[in-house]
Amino acid sequence: MSSASGRGRSVRTRPPTILVALAALGAVFFLIPLAGLLKQTPWSDLPELLTSDVVLDALRLSLISSIAAALISLIFGVPLAWLLARVDFPGRRFVRAVVTLPMVLPPVVGGAALLFALGRRGLVGGPIYDSTGFLLPFSLWGVIVANTFVAMPFLVVTVEAAFASIDQRYEAAAASLGASRLTVFRRVTLPMIGPSLAGGLVLTWARALGEFGATATFAGNLQGRTQTLPLAVFVGLESDRGAAIAISLVLVAISMLVLVGLRDRWWGQR
Amino acid sequence: MVVSLRLLVEEWKVRLGWWGVCASALLSLAACGSGASPEPSGQFAGEVVVFAASSLTNTFTLMAEAFEDEYPGADVQLNLAGSSTLREQILAGAPADVFASANEENMKRVDEGGELGSDPATFATNTLSLAVPAGNPGGVSGVEDLGNSNLLVGLCNESAPCGQFAEQMLATAGVEASVDTNEADVRALLTKIGADELDVGVVYVTDIEATAGVDGIEIPADVNIVATYPIATLTAAQNQELAELFVDFVLSTEGQGIMTAAGFGSP
Fold it and tell me: Are B16 and B120 in the same domain?
């Protein structure tokens, strides 16, 4: 805390009205849809709706697929982030662009691309299907692949920034004192990128949980096999609105819980 | 590539269709307000926003062109999506002038919502067909193959008319389908069949001709259903007269000719 800001507080300058007004409008913009959702909620039927087969199946599939996607992203995303941050190889810019592409691409485009690459007539999926009969679309694996494709960039981008920003002299010092590469990573690098890694992982998981477009296009929609919470909401809005709203509430609740709970712990106190 | 583009277009139509229509309707409204819009053919000029079931994609595109030829001042804006999606949009206050549904149920729900400006009139009938990828790689021969768990089977979602009709047909035929995916509407289903990612699906007879890369396998009349398509104007219509004119045109000899040429039955 600098003395300048301390003085500012003691004088109690009021924040500019126009800024406060705009900020309040901005916040209201995010609150109103939530209020709309709550107003439409059939509260008395809620317990029954939330324990219906459709909701329980979708909840199970959503949790499995989003957690799996986050873990797969961790396994492949961290090395990828390290490579992009630390190794100057030809085509690095291109690889970085390709890896972050799913963040800006409409998810349905990603789903279509996955279908034409990994479907049974796809570039890679075709030969695999012909030789082993293994099929990604219309299966839980397909959901996980779609989730990972859309969500992993969030981990890579976050962790790459962390790798790039830490002072490599700490690692060099540890190594010069005889620490093995593994020890350096475990005792020096990991603690330094820890908060970014955790934050990136949460973002990745949250993005996977909310995934809709790529899943519907690539993995299809079948209750109990590929129908995750967002797909169940989409279907429900046209056939059973009460159930759709109940599922939406579940998604809002899970997301809020995670954002509020983890923000303080991992993203630093504000 | 063609298939993938089509998939995207369909998806974006579903997602953005209403907003596109909304924006264009607002623009035209603004134009009318400022008195800037030309009126070459008197009262029959202006925009008519038609919400039509996605199984009408091809026929209503032709219908719109023919209508605009007949009334040069008219401009038809089509919003094509699953009937139940359209129903929800209309009930939520979408600025639509005409609703053409793929079943009676959605029209009834719109009527109950007090949104109908005229009594619904049946303008077409349709029946179901099995759809398989060109060349029938799955070796599908009839309705009973829908129960084969070794085949990849797709239906429309139960909230879409084609899904409800398929359920009826399966119940009549006594077949329990081994479903691998329930697609949002008939176009999404056809895209996956056309890409040979599904072995068989249940679609409308009229979709077979209209879709490249898809072959049809007949469903016997004794288990098949007859879908009736109702059309009506909406109370939200900005230009009730033009909306009625469009409905009349669909029911006219010329309009019916467009429907039957595409394989629809004439009521």
Answer: yes
If one counts the domains in chain B, the total is 2
Show the tokens assigned to B131. Answer: 């759809």
Q: Average pLDDT for consecutive 10-residue bins of chain B (267 residues)?
A: 41 43 42 40 76 90 93 91 89 91 92 90 93 93 92 91 92 93 89 92 90 91 92 90 93 94 88
Q: In whole angstroms, what is the distance from residue A3 CA to residue A126 CA?
A: 67
For the stretch A93-102, contacts whose Cβ atoms lie closer than 8 Å and that sit 24 or more positions apart, written own/partner, are A96/A160, A99/A152, A99/A153, A99/A156, A100/A153, A100/A156, A100/A157, A101/A153, A102/A149, A102/A150, A102/A152, A102/A153
Q: Are residues B20 and B105 in the same domain?
A: yes
Nearest to B180 among A109, A112, A222 (CB): A222
The CATH number for B236's domain is: 3.40.190.10
For chain A, the structural domain boundaries read: 46-266
Does the A46-266 domain belong in CATH 3.40.50.300?
Answer: no
Residue A142 CA, chain-centre distance (Å), reads: 17
B181 vs A contacts (CB less than 8 Å): 138, 220-222, 226
On whether residue B12 sits in a domain, the answer given is yes
Secondary structure letter of residue B144 according to DSSP: G
Q: Decide if B233 is inside a domain.
A: yes
Q: Kindly report the CA angle at B229 between B2 and B86, in degrees rounded to 5?
A: 65
B 66-125 residues with CB below 8 A of A?
82, 84-85, 87-88
Structure tokens at B115: 């949104």
| pTM of structure | 0.77
Residue B265 is given by DSSP the state: B
Measured in angstroms, the CA of B149 and the nearest CA of chain A are apart by 13
User: ipTM strictly over 0.85?
Assistant: no
Tell whether B116 and B15 lie within a shared domain: yes
In a domain, B92, yes or no: yes
Q: Is residue B267 assigned to a domain?
A: no
Distance from CA of B74 to the nearest CA of A (A): 32
